[in-house]
Amino acid sequence: MGNPTDIRKGRVIIYNGVPHAVMSMLHRTQGRQAGFVQTVLRNLETNASTAVKFRSTDSVEFCHTTNKPLEFSYVDGDEYHFIDPDTFEDTVIMKNTIGDDIKWLQEGVVYNVLLVDGNPVSVELPNTVEMEVAVAAEGLRGDTSSAPTKAVTLANGVVLQVPLFIKQGDKIRVRTEDNAYISRA
Fold it and tell me: Are the C-beta atoms of residues 149 and 163 closer than 8 Å to each other?
């Protein structure tokens, strides 16, 4: 058990009997009242986020976590297989555990996997990925008073807006956080 003031972003705590990742935290004090810690927690089983306030008198249970680099190997139905590059041990992560980040997984790439008590609970994506443009219509020149864009489909099926000069077969760099085009690769 720990004190709520020990809560930090990236740590995992047990809240209502379920492991939750701390997405953000803010320590507050109000005049003569006791301080509290305002947090945003993400349920590691359902991926739902909730805002939770911990008073300074509350106790918090922290989970033992480790980050392990694992190489994404292949998909078998709803099971995503990751291989330890050193021991070649296979780790299976279910589709619902990974969530929407599945679209950015690429075979042969090493990802940091968060393990809580030895069980995988999330996959950390890099900030940017390089993807090939699978479908790109010709850009129509027209209103160029602002930066004109067009929709393209990437090799993983994600549709996003890019500048008119991007063509089918080009490799582009995409920010995984908000699916935004950054540059040509």
Answer: yes
Beta bridge pairs of residue 24: 40
How far apart are the C-alpha atoms of 97 and 79, rounded to whole Å? Answer: 10
Q: What is the DSSP letter of 2?
A: B
Last residue of a domain, one of 105, 124, 143: 124
Residue 127: which residues within 8 A CB-CB, separation 6 or more? 175, 176, 177
Q: What is the pLDDT of residue 141?
A: 66
Q: Are residues 165 and 137 in the same domain?
A: yes
Query: Per mean pLDDT, which of 4-8, 10-14, 49-53 is the most reliable?
Result: 49-53
Q: What is the largest CA-CA distance in the chain?
A: 64
> What's the domain range around 157?
128-184
CATH number at residue 113: 2.40.50.140
Is residue 109 within 8 Å of residue 130, measured between CB atoms? no
Q: Please write the tens of the pLDDT for every residue from 122-134.
A: 888 898 999 999 9
What's the rounded Cα separation, in Å, for the pair 30 and 55?
12
Q: Could you give the CA distance from residue 108 to residue 100 in angstroms, rounded to a whole number?
A: 19
